[in-house]
């Protein structure tokens, strides 16, 4: 047996900032060297950031990635770090002739081994996910290699993200190839309960491969996706050895005792059990095991509960969207209701209350408690606030144009949206919208009104979960709480006298159960009724959801936290004659 100290770089790269990501690679490798690491592993497509979407189809972007990889290897050596092997994800291209149906330039979701100033070996993701938020047949061609390098006597294999999730391919030949450790760079976005799925997956693959497995994931927000870290190491029996924190950058160092490699160097071909053949490439870095040393105590970071996970995902999503897009401050309308109160609190936790601006915009229908509840939240959170009454502004519109019913109600929302966008234009604030998933699903939002903005923090949060998050946040010690009245009062848009959400919608716990089944599980009408939902309500809600598709297409992006969000996941035609049997 041989000892090996591995460092998993749970990092937050920025898409397109190839130079900055390369700087981060050098700095984190230096930190790993300071902790005595023998190997450093970075996430999937670390050098370019992930997902880079259509940037990967630009030859200039691919070339910049390839060039940065070689320069990073030379730089590591030049700064005295070349003796530490580094596994890093990057963007490469395959040597394939152009053909119809192949992504332009044949890009590869690649991984490379850097050592002693050079790129020693490289491979690419074999399984290309094409479900949910992933669309990788559009972007990449498939790899067909499994690199194995002998480091201090241990044979270390490398696979990429989806290759762990699918049967067959490179991971299926690891046992036959006889590796002692499998390292897997990942770009795995967060959704509820995914941490449990990851651990079970890694344990199963480790048992199948007959070796320890190190899973490294990135952390941070990228548009609608939030990456939660949660890197982990399991032994050959699938038992958890160590686990990194969630939603935090972390240099995660773990000591392992692993079998010494015995396989012959060179190349061999293996049946991948998915109709393809994988070429195993073995290279030698160092044959002799390291001198025995005292290992560090492995760390298993405490797991967050479900609501804590969701809240941290929303905070991280807002923080990185603001930071990575160069905004210095945010602004939102504060009504005194639960949605805007939660969004303001998330924003304050994400970027600091001094950079959060709220606008109270009472109308002729605003209740006294709505104003006082909003003012109380301002005091508790310490955010910047101003009051802009809209009654006279709405009246000025009404003098020039005659509106009735819903059009008149929506005018108030559009005046508020116009004021927020104007203040954003004047001061450079990012406008945060405050709509939740239940409202977006049923079309209970006003285009160019409450839907106007640049980012939507609770876009993927059902109303019933909004209340739970507010109560969870209030239970955290040392944190200024959301006013209790904002949580307990009956929800209302206050666009007409005595308006209540329940005037036209069922109770939110009933609605949200139906929306989960229809929106997130794609159940049709008959399935919904068979699942126990009221047939009349099913008919009504299906109609509302289907008719609101055009509104959702115009809604700002927001953090994805469920298995299927509006935007990257759920994509339906606006113009369609298809309707569930009503």
TrEMBL record:
Amino acids binding ATP: 333-340, 434
**Which keywords does UniProt give here?**
ATP-binding, Ligase, NAD, Nucleotide-binding
Q: What terms describe the molecular function in GO for this protein?
A: NAD+ synthase (glutamine-hydrolyzing) activity
The catalysed reaction is: deamido-NAD(+) + L-glutamine + ATP + H2O = L-glutamate + AMP + diphosphate + NAD(+) + H(+)
Could you say which residues bind L-glutamine here? 131, 188, 194
Top enzyme class: ligase
Database matches in InterPro entries = C-N_Hydrolase, C-N_Hydrolase_sf, Gln-dep_NAD_synthase, NAD/GMP_synthase, NAD_synthase, Nitrilase/CN_hydratase_CS, Rossmann-like_a/b/a_fold
Q: What is its EC number?
A: 6.3.5.1
Start and end residues of each CN hydrolase domain = 4-258
Q: In which pathway does it act?
A: Cofactor biosynthesis; NAD(+) biosynthesis; NAD(+) from deamido-NAD(+) (L-Gln route): step 1/1
In this chain, the stretch annotated as Disordered covers 476-506
- Record's signal peptide: none
Active-site annotation: 44, 125, 161
The residues listed in the UniProt record as binding deamido-NAD(+), with positions renumbered to this chain, are 410, 439, 551
Keyword Repeat applies: no
Basic and acidic residues: bias regions: 491-503
Stated family: Belongs to the NAD synthetase family. In the C-terminal section; belongs to the NAD synthetase family.
Protein role: Catalyzes the ATP-dependent amidation of deamido-NAD to form NAD. Uses L-glutamine as a nitrogen source.
Note the PANTHER family from the entry. Answer: GLUTAMINE-DEPENDENT NAD(+) SYNTHETASE (PTHR23090:SF9), NH 3 /GLUTAMINE-DEPENDENT NAD + SYNTHETASE (PTHR23090)
Name recorded for this polypeptide: Glutamine-dependent NAD(+) synthetase
Q: Which organism is it from?
A: Microbispora maris
């Amino acid at each position: 047996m041989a000892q090996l100290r591995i460092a998993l770089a749970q990092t937050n790269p920025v898409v397109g900032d190839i130079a900055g990501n390369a700087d981060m690679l050098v700095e984190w490798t230096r930190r790993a060297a300071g902790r005595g690491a023998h190997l450093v592993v970075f996430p999937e497509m670390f050098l370019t950031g992930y997902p880079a979407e259509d940037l990967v189809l630009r030859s200039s972007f691919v070339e910049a990635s390839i060039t940065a990889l070689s320069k990073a290897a030379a730089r590591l050596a030049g700064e005295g770090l070349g003796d530490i092997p580094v596994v890093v994800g990057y963007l490469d291209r395959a040597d394939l002739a152009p053909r119809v149906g192949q992504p332009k330039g044949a890009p590869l979701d690649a991984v490379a081994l850097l050592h002693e100033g050079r790129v020693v070996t490289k491979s690419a993701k074999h399984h290309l996910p094409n479900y949910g938020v992933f669309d990788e047949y559009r972007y990449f061609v498939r790899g067909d290699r499994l690199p194995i390098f002998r480091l201090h006597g241990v044979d270390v294999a490398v696979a990429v993200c989806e290759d762990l999730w699918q049967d067959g391919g490179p991971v299926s030949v690891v046992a036959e190839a006889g590796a002692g450790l499998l390292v897997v760079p990942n770009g795995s976005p967060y959704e509820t309960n995914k941490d449990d799925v990851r651990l079970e997956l890694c344990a199963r693959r480790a048992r199948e491969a007959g070796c320890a497995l190190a899973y490294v994931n990135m952390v941070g927000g990228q548009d609608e996706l939030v990456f939660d870290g949660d890197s982990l190491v399991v032994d050959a029996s699938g038992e958890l050895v160590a686990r990194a924190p969630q939603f935090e950058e972390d240099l995660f160092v773990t000591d392992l005792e692993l079998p010494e490699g015995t396989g012959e160097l060179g190349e061999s071909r293996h049946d991948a059990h998915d109709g393809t053949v994988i070429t195993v490439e073995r290279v030698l870095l160092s044959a002799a095991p390291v001198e025995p040393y005292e290992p560090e105590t492995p760390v298993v970071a405490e797991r967050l509960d479900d609501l804590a996970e969701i809240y941290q995902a929303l905070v991280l999503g807002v923080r990185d969207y603001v930071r990575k897009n160069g905004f210095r401050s945010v602004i939102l309308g504060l009504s005194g209701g639960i949605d805007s109160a939660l969004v303001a609190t998330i924003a304050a936790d994400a970027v600091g209350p001094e950079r959060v601006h709220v606008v109270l915009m009472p109308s002729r229908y605003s209740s006294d408690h709505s104003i006082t509840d909003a003012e109380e939240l301002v005091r508790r959170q310490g955010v910047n606030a101003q009051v802009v009454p809209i009654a006279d502004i709405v009246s000025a519109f009404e003098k020039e144009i005659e509106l009735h019913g819903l059009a008149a109600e929506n005018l108030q929302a559009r005046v508020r949206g116009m004021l927020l966008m104007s203040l954003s234009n004047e001061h450079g604030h990012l406008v945060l919208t405050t709509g939740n998933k239940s409202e977006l699903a049923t079309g209970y939002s006003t285009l160019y009104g409450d839907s106007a903005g640049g980012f939507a923090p609770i876009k993927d949060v059902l109303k019933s979960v909004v209340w739970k998050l507010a109560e969870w946040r209030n239970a955290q010690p040392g944190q200024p709480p959301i006013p209790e009245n904002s949580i307990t009062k009956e929800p209302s848009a206050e666009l007409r006298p005595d308006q209540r959400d329940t005037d036209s919608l069922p109770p939110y716990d009933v609605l949200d159960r139906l929306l989960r089944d229809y929106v997130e599980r794609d159940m049709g009408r008959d399935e919904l009724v068979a699942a126990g939902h009221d047939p009349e309500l099913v008919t009504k809600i299906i109609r509302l959801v289907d008719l609101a598709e055009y509104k959702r297409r115009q809604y700002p992006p927001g953090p994805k936290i469920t298995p299927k969000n509006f935007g990257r996941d759920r994509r339906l035609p606006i113009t369609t004659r298809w309707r569930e049997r009503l």
